[in-house]
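pls design
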């Protein structure tokens, strides 16, 4: 087992971690002992960029008051469109507009927001009853499980066997009992014909789609979301600094699996040390700490499908990547490394990718079309002669669910607006030599000028062109 106290020690983090991990790789224990004897102590944290205007939140999650404000804002958009309410069926819409973090399964879990009213109406399975009723609950209806039978409630001693209940129609009947028959209602998605048929049968007229209204609000991050995202990235910066120190100190004694596991452990301990986690619902929600490392051949593919357990060697490309979120706010942060001795080809792929990242930062301005960011980046890649290594668009939008519209892609003509967040991935990949270079970060569209960088990681050769 890893010694948590030693792991978090400023003086001995990497060495103690590797000594504890020697059961996976006996060479790590020797590397740890050598590092302790030499007193070597790289300090990657000293290379981080200075802070900017955005101050990190001290909150562990967005408060219920914030979600209620989003609830009211959505109600305003519904009223302007003439709707009397909306059925939220998507996990991320429910979380965003009500604040209830929950697990998405095959079970139907919906929340109805009336245009006039101050609380949602829940339609939920018994499995989630404690989560729902201990959150923002004033009205709702519960079914036992999927697939359900009308009247079944084993938790109340009512074991019933019979025809399968239509849960969608059951929810619609709940709306009808609340006076919404004949009203103009919306859903957060385009309903398929069979679902729409049930709506007409029960409520008297079809549901429209207000998917665009929901997405419009979720794409434009509020100051509170950005502040909490900055908190997540502050932790993420420290995780990357830890992983880089690990590489510099013990690189050739490690596999990429070792680095990923060590960084994940370090980051989890770091974050949970400061976040309330008492085992009760609604605390420590929306937390993700997923760190990946890939070395050598696997870097040459955008989405490798092989298990990553490769020995780290000199002359390799290596990438440390992943995602960190707190309360659902956060995003991606990758950095590609080129380990000496480097070839000119390695350096070229890395440099062109880095320069395209900086282009994206400058081009991503309010009022610009997504395609007008992607077009010059791809043109630059082609002019540099690396078109063979282009596999994908420069970036995707970033939200609670990870990938979120809009996209910095040639066919996306969405106009950038304040608060939109994007990954940073004009990557280049060469499977023939096993060389890949893919940065990612988060750029936030500002009211004026170039976008804001969420992490404090540098884009420099000093950070990424390492010798081990």
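designed seq:
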């Amino acid at each position: 087992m890893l010694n948590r106290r030693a792991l978090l020690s400023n003086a001995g983090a990497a060495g103690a971690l590797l000594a504890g991990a020697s059961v996976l790789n006996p060479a790590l224990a020797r590397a740890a002992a050598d590092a302790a004897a030499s007193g070597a102590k790289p300090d990657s944290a000293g290379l981080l960029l200075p802070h900017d205007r955005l101050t990190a939140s001290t909150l562990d999650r967005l408060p219920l008051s914030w979600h209620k404000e989003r609830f009211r804002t959505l109600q305003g958009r519904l009223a302007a469109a003439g709707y009397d309410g909306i059925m939220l069926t998507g996990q991320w819409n429910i979380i965003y507009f009500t604040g209830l973090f929950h697990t998405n399964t095959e079970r139907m879990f919906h929340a109805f927001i009336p245009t006039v009213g101050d609380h949602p109406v829940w339609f939920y399975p018994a499995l989630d009853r404690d989560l729902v009723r201990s959150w923002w609950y004033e009205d709702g209806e519960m079914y036992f499980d999927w697939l359900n039978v009308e009247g079944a409630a084993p938790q109340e001693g009512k074991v019933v066997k019979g025809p399968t209940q239509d849960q969608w129609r059951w929810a619609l009947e709940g709306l009808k009992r609340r006076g919404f028959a004949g009203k103009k209602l919306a859903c957060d998605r385009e309903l398929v014909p069979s679902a729409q048929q049930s709506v007409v049968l029960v409520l008297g007229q079809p549901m429209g789609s207000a998917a665009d209204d929901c997405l419009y609000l979720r794409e434009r991050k509020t100051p509170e979301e950005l502040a909490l995202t900055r908190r997540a990235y502050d932790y993420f910066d420290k995780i990357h600094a830890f992983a880089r120190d690990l590489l510099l100190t013990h690189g050739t004694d490690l596999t990429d699996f070792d680095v990923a596991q060590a960084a994940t452990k370090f980051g989890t301990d770091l974050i949970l040390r400061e976040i309330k986690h008492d085992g009760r619902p609604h605390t420590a929600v929306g937390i993700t700490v997923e760190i990946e490392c890939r070395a050598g051949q696997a870097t040459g593919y955008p989405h490798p499908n092989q298990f990553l357990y490769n020995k780290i060697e000199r002359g390799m490309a290596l990438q440390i990547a992943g995602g960190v979120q707190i309360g659902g706010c956060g995003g991606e942060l990758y950095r590609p490394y080129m380990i000496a001795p480097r070839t000119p080809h390695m350096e070229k792929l890395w440099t062109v990718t880095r320069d395209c990242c900086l282009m994206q930062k400058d081009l991503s301005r309010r009022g610009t079309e997504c395609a007008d960011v992607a077009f010059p980046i791809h043109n630059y890649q082609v002019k540099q002669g690396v078109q063979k290594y282009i596999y994908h668009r420069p970036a995707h939008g970033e939200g609670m669910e990870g990938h979120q519209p809009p996209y910095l892609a040639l066919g996306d003509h969405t106009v950038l607006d304040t608060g939109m967040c994007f990954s940073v991935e004009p990557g280049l990949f060469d499977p023939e030599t096993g060389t890949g270079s893919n940065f990612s970060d988060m750029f936030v569209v500002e009211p004026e000028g170039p976008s804001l960088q969420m992490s404090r990681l540098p884009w420099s050769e000093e950070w990424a062109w390492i010798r081990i």
